[in-house]
Write a structure and sequence with these properties.
Layout lengths: L7 E2 H10 L6 H7 L6 E2 L6 H7 L5 H13 L2 E3 L3 H10 L2 E3 L1 H10 L5 H15 L15
Parallel strand pairs: 1-2, 3-4
Helix pairs in contact: 1-2, 1-4, 3-4, 4-5
Length: 140
């Protein structure tokens, strides 16, 4: 359940910057980028994969999946089409809830903090979750 080295790609950084204009909660994510989460440029080896994925995915998901495919990485996404593409290509993935579970398991977040994040996502951002209480996702 280790937390891997976390990076993001340029296309996701651009999407977050654009989205901050209409979604104020994104400001926190942008504050973390550059300080704690490096923004990387995809290697040329990812270009062909990215081009193929752009036929069905948004630029952020396409670029993140392409970089993960080339670098044998793990993609964090809740986007259904991106999750399907990752599974088809054998790219490891998790979602927002998986990040919370890993963070609690590595003592980076308390269960109560993870629960408050989940509830805020559901209530404020319209996040669709199979459970409203975070503890349902923990193996105990």
């Amino acid at each position: 359940m280790a937390l891997p080295r976390v990076v993001t790609v340029e296309a996701v950084d651009e999407e977050l910057s654009t989205g901050a204009e209409t979604h104020s909660y994104i400001d926190h994510a942008l504050a973390v980028l550059g300080e704690e989460i490096p923004v990387i440029s995809p290697a040329s080896a990812a270009a062909q994969i990215e081009a193929e994925l752009l036929e069905s995915l948004d630029p952020g998901e396409a670029q993140a999946l392409a970089v993960a495919a080339v670098g044998n990485g793990l993609v964090v996404t809740d986007d259904g089409d991106a999750r399907t593409a990752a599974k088809q290509r054998g790219i490891d993935l998790t979602g927002s809830i998986g990040v919370l579970v890993r963070s609690v398991g590595n003592d980076r977040l308390s269960v109560s903090t993870a629960d408050s994040y989940l509830k805020q996502w559901i209530d404020d951002a319209g996040f669709r979750s199979p459970a409203h209480d975070f503890e349902r996702f923990l193996d105990r």
